[in-house]
User: Fold these one by one.
Assistant:
Number 1:
Amino acid sequence: MKKIALILLLVLQAFTPLTFADASADLMQSYRRLLPLEGGSNFRDVGGYKTEDGHTVTRGVIFRSGAMTSLTQADMEYLDQFDFQTIVDFRSSEERQLFPNQWAAHSDIDVVDRDYSLVASMKSSGDAKDMMKNMGEVYPRLLGNIEPQLQTLVTRLLDGKTPLVFNCSAGQDRTGTTAALLLTVLGVSKDTIIEDYLLSTDFRQTANEQGGVDLVKAAETNEFAKMMLRFSEGHEGPSRPNSLLTPEGRPFLDFTLEWIDAEYGSVEAYFERQLGFSAADIEKLRAMYRH
């Protein structure tokens, strides 16, 4: 009788749906850092890194990405398993118009964005080639462009509106800077943060970032498309990801971190004095997003 009961129990277990915890564990095992998306570019988990005081940044709650304009139906169904609550889109008005995020509308996720012109803010840096030489000026300016969204992002994290993903077009400059700031306040070492920043060159899929848009035609009405064409001069098709290093081997991110240290003394002080978050808020972030 006991044997029959055991067999029945095993049969029932085999056909019992996965619990939420089981499903979440299975989902976490579906990727190491970069999510397996057909139409994604640089969509990855910010978590998993060790902190300098012996903690680990929690996986599965904070993500970063490039433009999500090419996500397939299968991609959207995969991402919906995470039950994302917030998308923070750092892109300018021109970028969002050119490469819309269909997943956000499809899944009815709360989107944080802001109308501004990236092209206008970059004009004083000269042409595309000059811009690449002037990253010491460009990178701190990028931070100024995204500060309103950055404030909202941190507020959403404090309110537990997660999982959350933040993105720009390539997922490396504005997004890379944001990831670096968050990882810094969570206690990750600078060496690890720089390593994470440089992964974008490996993880980007530039064709997916452009979503099959005809840039030549789009450039008739869209200034960001014109800028992209200038960057791609001499290349056929989507360009390869550009290096995030100066010719001397210095990561562009260094310029922003150096500027923050010079102006505020530390990233934590920048969060407090410029973004308006208290030391208690920073401690709350650490308590919520690391273990």
Number 2:
Amino acid sequence: MEYLDRHDSRTRTWVAEAIRKVEADTNRSSDTHLHVFPLPSHWGVNLYLKDESVHPTGSLKHRLARSLFLYGLANGWIGPTTTVVEASSGSTAVSEAYFARLIGVPFIAVMPASTSPEKIALIEFQGGKCHLVDDPGAIYAESHRLAAESGGFFMDQFTYAERATDWRGNNNIAESIFHQMSMEPYPVPAWIVVGAGTGGTSSTIGRYIRYRCHSTRLAVVDPEGSAFYASWKSGDPDATALGSRIEGIGRPRVEPSFLPGVIDRMIQVPDARSIAAMRWASEVTGRDVGGSTGTNLAAVVELIKEMREAGEQGSIVTLICDGGERYRGTYDNDAWLAERDLDIHPHLADLRAFLAS
């Protein structure tokens, strides 16, 4: 990695203006809506959904991309002629392409050749270029190679996610949640429930809870095929897995930004139940949500059951990570599910019965 000449006044001026543009985006879009999920009032448990799908690029990853760009600019890694490279075929690449265009630098997303045309179109719509590789395991090495050849910068979300975000505050997602909850009946949540992709969001929230001395517990959900749950349970930082089918969360390896020490509990959710909960959420709330939101809600249901059995009252907060419109050809497609032997109907019936119990 080459550092820019910070003594060049033109570069300093450009960097200052780029940071101003990114910070201006923060003012326009950082605080997202907190929706009430309809639960029977006599349960004494309130559930809230923080809607990260309303960001300009449509997902929770907008926050991460903004933090990564500020980190790269402040560290002298991104300048006026820097090509930014990222290993991502999903929402992070869409959001990073947006910020690259905002400050006027090229962006390349390195992704498997199997990536859906819809995802490629979203990245290209934001001004990014897509570099496809046949071997999904080669995206990291290929990203390093492209960055070196172009004199650019490999953003490396999986390494820098937890350190790029200011977990003490600065309107991060944790601070936003507690501020928005301040006038609710149970202002300090009993649980906050999130998934882990890079591990950056769970690290930020877990650190903030401890820093502010809240009693809130952090539950991290993990889909089938992800290494995070196995690593947290066994304590093995080198645990590996096949990889997740729920986009945006789960990884085949334990990423550097995943911090198990800030997590109170991990819950593994079967893919069929994640997708059932995604569809159930749309039925109950009228909001179109994605698969990782379904994973969150599947775990939330288990926590609510436990709270009720224990006679505990309080609040739970989880995230709407992105919208369901990105998954019309996959999770929302019954033929796609049948091809993969995913039977969501027993889970859907169970979730419907949960509210009627």
Number 3:
Amino acid sequence: MSAPAVSREATNTVVVGAGQAGLATSYWLAQRGVEHVVLERRNALGGAWQDRWDSFYLNTPNFSVAVPGKSYDGPEPDGFISRDATIDFFRRYAQDINAPVRLRTEVTRISPTDTGFAVETGQGSWSARNVVLASGAFQRPRMPAAVGISPGVLQVHSHEYRSPAQLPDGAVLVVGTGQSGGQITEDLLDAGRTVHLSVSSCPEAPRRYRGQDIFHWIMAVNIHGPEYGINALQVHGLPSPAGRFLCNPLVSGNGGGHSVHLRELGRRGVRLHGRFEGMDAGALVFTDDLPQRLALVEAGFRQRLGALSDAYIKAAGLDAPEADVPEEDHWLPAETGARLDLAAEGITSVIWCTGYGLDFAMLDLPLLDEWGYPRHAKGVTEHPGLYAVGLPWLTRHISATLVGVGPDAEFVTEHLAARG
């Protein structure tokens, strides 16, 4: 009996991923008249926003919801839109630009050929002169190696968390205080759950700074900073390539937008712990440095983003109010022990808010650096015809955000179209 026929199709360019990066790339390819297809592994459009929890609101203000050819035009430019509204925004965008998306088509291998690339998927294969990697910054949930937690305790990554209702009754341990960890902790508190929180080193930040939402200044320094010699938020200004994976500021878009302060969470009843280290004799072990750790996360904004915002305001000659001086806060929990017995504390769930890693396992090319990041210059990789868009710090700090992905896609597609 002969094997079933495998479909083989050809196009000029294959775009891998139909999230914000893939759709922005599709927009610019269409503008340049480049034949292409966008391959998406998911069953529906909406990108990684579909992996956020039910109460999630976009962390960046509506004025930054802008992709090529479409931007937020509602009545609240300084507000924040929900997860479902964000998903709807991108579904409408894909329709508006008539993006040639193939859903339920996961790319499993990309290998070079004499004329370009062979792209293998679960739905057949493609031959293409060019390939754009646009699968985004949230590819592979990072989970710690086996730590010996009892199988009777539910463990989920923030990628799988949707609401407190999916968790069994009992207390919850949240590991990590990036944006997801802080916001999920608030979601659990609002549902009346007892929460333990393992503190990482992600910096706190004010939601508003010197008269504007903090993202206003982050955008300004990214986009206009180089005009004034302020390059710290450009990729060449990073002290190390490892800096591409640093935490974002600890803020939330919920409730009209607000800062997330760890000491305030503690006052509300959250049990704060140091950084998670592992298991020992049946107990979870944390670093015994909570006071120092809280001071570190509180100082991080002033030392970096605050200082850059101040430098930009001064260099650009902007009329902005002086920064508020934060009140000193020395609150600490009564107990800061470094060990935690899950059973004794009634903890029945652990939510790992430990971020994401890049996953380019489909590449049959020696293209990745020691961090698993494609070697490239402004999204143009070392292999002719292969490009990347939407990765953290592709060209600057905001490269993986809505407002940042469009310019990178425009540059990449200009280079791609020039290849003919």
